[in-house]
Amino acid sequence: MPIMSGNPFASPLPPQPFPLMLRDVTAVCGETRVFSGLDMAIDAGGLWLVRGANGAGKTTLLRLLAGLLRPASGASLWGDGRAPRAVPERATLVGHQEALKPALTAAENLAFWARFAGVEENPWPTRSDPFSVWALADVPLRTLSAGQKRRVSLTRLAFARAPLWLLDEPTTALDAAGQRTVWELIAAHRRRGGAVVVTTHAKGTVEGASELHLGDER
User: Fold this and answer.
1) 3-state secondary structure string, 171-186?
2) Which pTM value belongs to this model?
3) Judging by DSSP bridges, how do beta strands 32-42 and 20-29 pair with one another?
4) Rounded to whole angstroms, how far apart are CA atoms 102 and 68?
5) Labelling 102: which of 40, 91, 141, 208 has CA 20 to 30 A away?
């Protein structure tokens, strides 16, 4: 079991804007309709597992929820009446691409993401180092393995203040211990009133999770 130093969520979340509702949403990429007629309600403390074959629209859904894309039709609204926008106060998106600068060290990359999240003082590693990447602090990202880069990228969750986490196959390239840490962080975030949407190809489910199947997979 990985050791998590300190409490990664010592600070409370900002006031909660849940639910986030999708009503009869159609998403289009270029001239291709990715999915249509999608209804979804994301509540505080909720967890959605999104499944589907490659190309079914899992990543597109996360980008739509983050406010990086707009629905071609239908409505996407937070409980306070605001449409999703790409702002760190609302959602944290961890995608397939690590969003790390290869020329910078792990510490420099995490310092950038802490500032982006609105954290005045980088809490890593003094408050939490859930993926044990402190040993990589001074190492340029370009020299790290895929698994190490994934661990650095996911460490952003330890100081994310956004109520909604959008995680695109977060356990990819992680060993068993790293995968357990991902689910521990998700559970802790839900306990403090946050919500999580996870895309996954893995079988099995999580207690209390809702599931969405995109495309023809069942």
Assistant:
1) CCCCCHHHHHHHHHHH
2) 0.91
3) antiparallel
4) 23
5) 91
The number of folded domains in the chain is 1
2 pLDDT more than 90: no
d(CA 124, CA 195): 23
Distances (CA, A) of 14 to 81, 104, 127, 180: 17, 30, 19, 27
Q: Residue 145: which CATH number?
A: 3.40.50.300
pLDDT at 197 over 90: yes
CA–CA–CA angle 158, 96, 110 (5° rounding): 35
Query: CB under 8 Å, gap of 24 or more: what pairs does 106-110 form?
Result: 106/133, 106/136, 106/137, 106/138, 106/139, 106/141, 106/144, 106/152, 107/137, 107/138, 109/141, 109/152, 110/152, 110/155, 110/156
Domain extent for 87: 20-200
Q: Provide the token pair at 116.
A: 């982006």
Cβ atoms of residues 105 and 140 within 8 Å: yes
For 28, the enclosing helix (H) or strand (E) is: strand 20-29
Per-residue pLDDT for 127 more than 80? no
Does residue 210 fall inside a structural domain? no
